[in-house]
TrEMBL record:
Residues 38-219 form the Ketoreductase domain. It is found in: Membrane. It comes from the Eukaryota. Belongs to the short-chain dehydrogenases/reductases (SDR) family. Keywords: Lipid metabolism, Membrane, NADP, Oxidoreductase, Signal, Transmembrane, Transmembrane helix. It catalyses: all-trans-retinol + NADP(+) = all-trans-retinal + NADPH + H(+). It comes from Callorhinchus milii. GO terms for cellular component: lipid droplet; membrane. This is Short-chain dehydrogenase/reductase 3. InterPro entries: KR_dom (IPR057326), NAD(P)-bd_dom_sf (IPR036291), SDR_fam (IPR002347). Residues 1-22 form the signal peptide.
Length: 301
């Protein structure tokens, strides 16, 4: 009983300490993790944000880069570019939605290239259709790739990270996991489940020294994924550049930051969402065109 009372007394002090420490780190960031001993595996590393992540990890000194994807041409191009800078890069064809293929390729990576110390779950698809307009297979595919794919890749690499007490699991999620829009219902659902996966994983790693997680939640980014998306005020809410997302992601991993919303103004959206009544939120979404922005998107599989 005395121990519980003591812990209760200490709790506000500990909260204050962590809040002040986070504030101090904003002003005086601690020395970032060096990547020179790290082997980084990026799913969907052939193009879009994934290709920029591969470039950025290489630029910031990672020892080996391994990229996975389904399109060999894109993977080869990315690898050749990174190798031309003198960095080590390898690619494997792997559909992360296929559990057996993930386990098989993870084994091949381990046997040929050694242990992966940073896993970046970036691969994703968006069909860009409403529930009634989507065919069932497309709805299943987005859950298999965007959510379940991370179960298989993380299960494949995390046990060894825990053994080595050295590892980092990264997820390129989306701000849509916290604030859904219509017209891409399967994508929003998959990203929300993936966010829950990462929150649970992050807390589960609290007592695992040397192993951490980072979840990145970017706003609309100018890649092929949401090509054609029309927002009402593009000057006010411009899309992010994929290289910015990649750079901020690598910095967050090196600083061991658990969650990163991009841009920072998305924090306001989250605060408004938890405070304002639904009707007021609907006014904001209507005003900004969020209800209709998916109408012009072609969608990709
Ligand atoms: N673009 C945005 O507005 C935005 C915003 C927030 C978050 N995100 C997230 O950022 C991540 C990257 O998206 P992006 O914008 O770079 O899109 P992108 O340009 O369409 O790239 C998607 C990548 O995922 C790979 N991929 C798709 N399905 C795969 C599968 N089954 N197995 C392995 N790789 C697969 C693709 O390669 P292959 O087709 O060759 O397999 C490609 O490299 C996604 O998780 C996305 O949800 C994007």
């Amino acid at each position: 009983m005395a121990a519980v009372a003591w812990r209760l007394l200490l709790l506000p002090l500990r909260l204050l300490y962590h809040t002040l420490r986070a504030g101090w780190w904003l002003l005086m960031p601690p020395r970032p993790r060096k990547l020179t001993a790290d082997t980084v595996l990026i799913t969907g590393g052939g193009k879009g944000i994934g290709r920029h992540l591969a470039r950025e990890f290489a630029r910031q000194g990672a020892r080996k880069i391994i990229i996975w994807g389904r399109t060999e041409r894109c993977l080869r191009e990315t690898c050749e570019e990174i190798r031309s800078w003198g960095a080590e890069c390898h690619y494997y064809m792997c559909d992360v939605g296929n559990r057996e293929e993930v386990y098989q390729q993870a084994k091949a990576v381990r046997e040929k290239l050694g242990d992966v110390t940073i896993l970046v779950n970036n691969a994703g698809v968006a069909h860009g259709k409403s529930l009634v307009d989507s065919d069932d297979d497309a709805l299943l595919k987005s859950q298999h790739i965007n959510t379940l794919g991370q179960f298989w890749t993380t299960k494949a690499f995390l046990p060894r990270m825990l053994e080595l007490q050295n590892g980092h699991v990264v997820c390129i999620n989306s701000v849509l996991s916290l604030c859904s829009i219509p017209g891409t219902i399967d994508y929003c659902t998959s990203k929300s489940s993936s966010f829950a996966f990462m929150e649970s994983l992050t807390l589960g790693l609290l007592d695992c020294p040397g192993v951490n997680a980072t979840t990145v939640l970017p706003f609309h980014t100018s890649t092929d994924m949401f090509q054609g998306m029309k927002t009402r005020f593009p000057k006010l809410f411009p899309p992010l550049e994929p290289q910015t997302v990649a750079q901020r992601t690598v910095e967050a991993v090196r600083a061991n930051q658990a969650f990163l919303l991009l841009p920072w103004t998305m924090h306001l959206l989250v605060i408004m969402k938890s405070l304002l009544p639904q009707a007021a939120l609907e006014e904001i979404f209507r005003f900004t065109g969020s209800y209709t922005c998916m109408h012009s998107v072609k969608g990709r599989t």
